[in-house]
Amino acid sequence: MANDRNQLIISAIMFGLLVWGALLAIGAYKFDLDPRKGFIVFGFTIAFLLFWAVMLSVRRRREEKDKP
């Protein structure tokens, strides 16, 4: 039960970061109308979220491996 709740909270935080990164990317684009800046900002946001997801997956596997 607690694990499902934690997963829901983490998913909500990740979705919030994705939306925030998209808004920052739009702002970076509108600053001087250079689409490269928006893609860079959004790309780093996606890279961070992917890195975080991989680290959570590694942690989950280790915890499952250590269970008797």
UniProtKB/TrEMBL annotation:
Keywords: Membrane, Transmembrane, Transmembrane helix
Protein name: Uncharacterized protein
Transmembrane segments: 7-27, 39-58
Domain of life the protein comes from: Bacteria
